[in-house]
Amino acid sequence: MSILATVVALSVLILIHEFGHLFAAKSVGIAAPRFSLGLGPRVAGFHWGETEFVISAIPLGGYVKMAGMEDDEAMEVLEGGEQAPPVDPSRTFDAKPLWARAWVISAGVIMNLLFALLANIVLAFAQGEPYISETRLAPITTLGGSTAQVAQVPLGARVVSVGGRPVANYNEIQDALLAAPAGPVALGLEGRPVVTLQLPAPGGSRDSVVGALQPLSAPVLGQLNPDQPAADAGLRAGDSIVSIDRQPIRTWPEAVERVRASPGKPLAVVVERNGTRREVTLTPRAEKEQDKTVGKIGAAGLPQTAYRTLGFGEALSYGTAETGRMIKTLMVTLRDLFTGALSPRNLGGLLAIGEASGESAQQGPATFLWFLAFLSVNLAVLNLLPIPILDGGHLMFLAIEAVRGRPLSVESRIRLSHVGLIIVVGLMLWANGNDVVRLFQRYFGG
Questions:
Q1: Whether 18 is catalytic
Q2: For the segment 105-119, what is each residue's pLDDT rounded down to a tens digit?
Q3: Exposure check for the chain: N or C terminus, fewer CB within 10 A?
Q4: Do 12 and 89 fall into the same domain?
Q5: Same domain, 10 and 113
Q6: Structure pTM?
Q7: Do 196 and 264 lie in a common domain?
Q8: Which of 249, 277, 299 is the last residue of a domain?
Q9: Cα distances (Å, whole numbers) of residue 415 to 68, 405, 412
Q10: Mind listing the pLDDT tens digit for each residue in 5-35?
Q11: Of 39, 111, 121, nearest to 376 (Cα)?
Q12: Which residue in 18, 129, 254, 322 is the catalytic one?
């Protein structure tokens, strides 16, 4: 499942991206001798008109070779030195006006964003707006710092208002807390005294406080991933967790908290199945998360999500907003990587994509389509990084040309493209190396 889902996901999104470049090139009369899915020497392919469509040996990315592009020589190195046939000079990339070249370079990113937008709109229209109907809370009380104050909220307390504003579900509780001004905010609780939280300024600390107020959910196993500690220990979907290491477990967040705090440590877990209790021993696998090691067992709780039916206009608005949220999430991640707030060890490569693809495919077509949309946004945004050989690098060259009134020399662009190729290949090796390290740690410890 993971292999098939990965092949489908990457192939579809790369094809969408590269067909955007090809369509744009053809629309302004630029010759495109090769369309490649993958990098390196040709494995198989066919000709359609002047363009050869090929599958290449290295299954990482793809490209459209356009006549006159300064990175043609870099691609020829990967292709084994094969050179494209000569074309009419008027049909080369550099012969076209600045606007035409910018359109061609941007078209791949535009296609990926349009695909994500369309997928999110289709999902919103087909299944509606997701929300968590629960208004009872299960505060996580052991995180420390500004989150310690959530201990004031009794387990199972039902929230009826935030800052005097009525709330009808967990999403409205979250939105109200995130939008409130810094300082005191009152949580109105059904049949209980009001609890006042001191909210930090919007940002990471505020997010931590809000995240510590989880919706109440029973400690019942839902989705289990094969070949992970929970499944290996014989647990099944529907099992209710009674205790972990003799400590009673009342909610799903409590179970998650205990597991995350025990990477590589054997846990005695009592579960109840069909009225019968049994004890199993499972050892959460250790995984790195933002420079700290946490435990994971490959299990999720029962889904709490419900859906509100949307009309076409609402679905259009929601799908657009969801695409914007995806872009924002990735931009924040890139910012954290560059500032050091997020370790480069968190970068994932082909194996990480494969795991995520397989897990989303197992959860059904809707989840897989959402994952494709998110991956498409990733491909679009990463391609805009100002690294020569990526779309962002080419747009950077065009911006320099617009400012200078003349382009960089072909020799300079070729040299920079070679540097860009080294950077991109290095990032690929690093990300895939992280996958190998995580895989080794998962199965052999350390």
A1: yes
A2: 999 999 999 999 999
A3: C
A4: yes
A5: yes
A6: 0.76
A7: no
A8: 299
A9: 15, 21, 5
A10: 887 888 888 889 989 999 999 999 998 888 8
A11: 111
A12: 18
